[in-house]
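User: Could you check the structure of this?
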Amino acid sequence: MLHFEDFTPGRRFEYLPRHMETAEIVAFAREFDPQPMHMDEEAGKSSILGGLAASGWHTSSVGMRMMIDAFLANSTSQGSPGIEFMDWKKPVLAGDTLYGFSLVLDARALRSRQGVGMVRFRNEILNQTGETVAVSECPIMFRMREATR
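Assistant: Sure, the predicted structure tokens are below.
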């Protein structure tokens, strides 16, 4: 179980690869972002995105799952107060394989909550050719080891 003390600046958590399937992209779009370039192959090809493209929100959701699998599920996470920024740099197209990482930028104990610290991460998602498709930074709160004894 990872505690606040385990998140030292510079520590990097690698994401497992995730293949983006056409059906998954269309299903997410139908439910949450029903724009033509996310739901129809021809509309995607004729758009500036160059093909059936995942919604940026879908890419971010996949990134969240990657974070869960990489370290959050095995941690004392207490949630996040929000995202500092999110940038969708390149389209994620059907057939792309995504991977990436979370990098600890800094960590500090919270004065307002005994036994809890705040860790700030930079999260990057890349495609199979190594191009960065999404970047975000966010703080996450974790319980300290002493607080769980």
